[in-house]
Amino acid sequence: MLMISNELEVKIMRAFLAGLFVGGLLLIVSLFLEDTTIIKYLLLLLGAIPMLISGVLSGSFVSGDRVRANYTGSKDFSKRTKLGSAFFLFGLSCFLVEIAIYYI
User: Fold this and answer.
1) What is the pLDDT of residues 34-72, one digit of tens each?
2) How far is Cα 81 from Cα 52, in angstroms, rounded to an integer?
3) 3-state secondary structure (DSSP) of residue 102
4) What pLDDT, on a 0 to 100 scale, did the predictor assign at position 51?
5) Which pLDDT value is given to residue 69?
6) If we measure between CA atoms, which residue out of 28, 56, 10 comes closest to residue 2?
7) What letter would DSSP give residue 3?
8) For residue range 67-88, what is the model confidence (pLDDT) as tens digits?
9) N or C terminus: which one in the chain shows less Cβ crowding within 10 Å?
10) For residue 13, what is the enclosing H or E element?
11) What is the number of other CB atoms lying within 10 angstroms of the CB of residue 94?
């Protein structure tokens, strides 16, 4: 059994489940609509925007020397990393639901 010891790890898992919940609701709505294009674009945006925020929080868009300068002695490095992971998992779950809608 997997034990989650950190409060931030619980928030990360909640973000993934929230993304699945939102995506599942939109999946149900898309099943009742004849044209699912709007739902697919909405899920695409709900997936892309949190992933971009995740990239900004993790420092993926800067070079190595800037990352080293930003995180040397930084006390909130792990908090930003885990928050970025939560955004990424929320966006990933929305992308997965979008792919499911595309193939249904």
Assistant:
1) 778 888 888 899 899 999 999 888 878 877 777 666 665
2) 13
3) helix
4) 92
5) 67
6) 10
7) -
8) 666 665 566 677 778 888 889 9
9) N
10) helix 7-32
11) 26
Q: What is the pLDDT of residue 1?
A: 41
104 closest CA partner among 19, 38, 28, 47: 28
Q: Look up the pTM and report it.
A: 0.79
45 closest CA partner among 91, 5, 80, 78: 91
Compute the distance between CA of residue 99 and CA of residue 1 in angstroms, rounded to an integer. 30
DSSP annotation string for 40-96: HHHHHHHHHHHHHHHHHHHTTTS-HHHHHHHHTT-TTHHHHHHHHHHHHHHHHHHHH
Q: Name residue 3's amino acid.
A: M
Residue 85, amino acid: S
Task: Please answer whether residues 62 and 104 qualify as being in contact, where contact means their C-beta atoms are separated by less than 8 angstroms.
Answer: no
Whether pLDDT at 13 is above 50: yes
C-beta separation of 71 from 58 below 8 A: no
Q: CB-based burial of residue 62 (10 Å sphere; 0-12 exposed, 13-18 middle, 19+ buried)?
A: middle
